[in-house]
């Protein structure tokens, strides 16, 4: 059994979010939550929320199918960060000039699976 969660338009640059995703790829879900909880980077919070959502999705899917759910058996099968839309902003400057500011967003995807459902 596998479950998936996606967060779109997260206001974190993809490069910073990929650092957090690389830390947890392939680990057990409970261990990954602990790692993200104590990571000092600001991108750890949105990645942890997506992971917790994927675990909750797995719980709902198991209850729907009538299977037993064990959170300790879940591991992170797949996780990646894609670039989202870029928000373009302008800041006024002296003598009629304007500075262009690009604010980047990310799409974070996490797929958790149980050991028996592994590829």
UniProtKB/TrEMBL annotation:
Task: Please give the InterPro entries that the UniProt record associates with this protein.
Answer: Ribosomal_uL22 (IPR001063), Ribosomal_uL22_bac/chlpt-type (IPR005727), Ribosomal_uL22_bac/org-type (IPR047867), Ribosomal_uL22_CS (IPR018260), Ribosomal_uL22_sf (IPR036394)
> One Gene Ontology cellular component annotation?
cytosolic large ribosomal subunit
CDD domains associated with the record: Ribosomal_L22
Q: Which UniProt keywords apply?
A: Ribonucleoprotein, Ribosomal protein, RNA-binding, rRNA-binding
Q: Which GO terms describe its molecular function?
A: rRNA binding; structural constituent of ribosome
Q: Which GO terms describe its biological process?
A: translation
Any one Pfam family here would be Ribosomal_L22
Classify the source by domain of life.
Answer: Bacteria
Of which family is this protein a member?
A: Belongs to the universal ribosomal protein uL22 family.
User: What is known about what this protein does?
Assistant: This protein binds specifically to 23S rRNA; its binding is stimulated by other ribosomal proteins, e.g., L4, L17, and L20. It is important during the early stages of 50S assembly. It makes multiple contacts with different domains of the 23S rRNA in the assembled 50S subunit and ribosome.
Subunit text: Part of the 50S ribosomal subunit.
Protein name, please?
Large ribosomal subunit protein uL22
Q: What is the lineage of its organism?
A: Bacteria, Bacillati, Actinomycetota, Actinomycetes, Bifidobacteriales
